[in-house]
Design a protein that fits this description.
Elements: H1 3-26, H2 31-40, H3 42-47, H4 60-86, H5 89-92, H6 98-110, H7 117-132, H8 144-151, H9 153-177, H10 181-201, H11 207-211, H12 215-236, H13 241-248, H14 251-263, H15 268-287
């Protein structure tokens, strides 16, 4: 199976998990519980593949990179959930398109992968798309659509998440190179779930009882995150990290579609246009 199919399935799974997470948050579910459910409920599904994977020979680099990536991802997950709770999906998810933009710098520094000219064309399109997300405010001034971004807390949080993800994607590729996609998928989700549980237990009372209070939506979220994780690391082992993440960010468009179907969000035409332009920038970067 080609890397593109893995990445496409990864994008669709992520967007659906995001929509279900937003629905749970809108139903007043504890945000910390939703954050943990995305990994805790994914772990059993990922555990199914354990008998079918080989345990590779692990070196010092693998352990160092893995335990560096885990705290970064914990921060990203908590900020991610906070972002989609406080702001509309159509104003938060599009900013994940900044991950490939940040990857131009982080993948060069961490992996030595050099971007080409198309990467800079992609940046321009992403910026134009971000502008279009709030173009209805243009009557307040030419720069008003960009200023509106800073006023939307969820947008700002997701920009931070996109930057953290760009670092995590690079670290993940190194860990895969020193293990295997399947093995890393399994061990990483269990580590993330464990440490998230420990951290969140200090923040949320009755964590265990709350975590099993809504088994059906949490199981669906967990299953989708498991599919996302496995396909993510499989795809990233087959192609340069910036290309894989570019296709994965199609989840942005799927997310905007969900924002209409499930949440009846407003100003959706301009937001869909902006998200489409941002994703176009990602595709230009990946394809050319």
């Amino acid at each position: 199976m080609s890397w593109f199919i893995y990445a496409f399935v990864c994008a669709l799974s992520l967007a659906t998990a995001d929509a279900l997470s937003k629905k749970a948050l809108d139903d007043n579910t504890d945000p910390y519980i939703v954050a943990w459910a995305r990994t805790g409920y994914a772990a059993p599904f990922i555990a199914v593949i354990i008998p079918f994977i080989d345990i590779p020979e692990l070196d010092r680099v693998f352990f160092m990179i893995t335990f560096l990536a885990v705290p970064l991802d914990i921060i990203a997950v908590l900020l991610y959930i906070r972002a989609i709770k406080v702001s509309p999906l159509s104003l938060t998810l599009p900013f994940l398109s900044l991950t490939p933009v940040f990857l131009i710098g982080t993948s060069y520094i961490i992996l030595g992968e050099r971007p080409d000219k198309s990467g800079f064309i992609g940046i321009i399109l992403v910026v134009i798309g971000a502008y279009l997300l709030n173009v209805h405010t243009i009557n307040q001034g030419l720069l008003a659509p960009l200023k509106a971004i800073s006023k939307e807390k969820g947008s700002v949080l997701m920009i931070i998440v996109a930057f953290i993800f760009s670092i995590g994607a690079c670290l993940g590729k190194i860990a895969i190179q020193h293990s295997s996609p399947e093995f890393f998928s399994v061990i990483y989700i269990f580590l993330l779930s464990l440490f998230l549980f420990i951290i969140i237990s200090f923040k949320s009372k009755h964590l265990l009882s709350k975590s099993i209070s809504r088994p059906v939506p949490f199981l669906l979220i967990g299953m989708l995150i498991a599919i996302m994780v496995i396909t993510h690391f499989k795809a990233i082992s087959l192609i340069e990290v910036s290309y894989m993440v570019s296709v994965k960010r199609l989840s942005i468009l799927f997310g905007v579609i969900y924002s209409v179907m499930l949440f009846k969000e407003t100003n959706i035409k301009e937001r869909f246009l902006g998200a489409t332009v941002m994703v176009s920038g990602i595709i230009v970067h990946a394809a050319f």
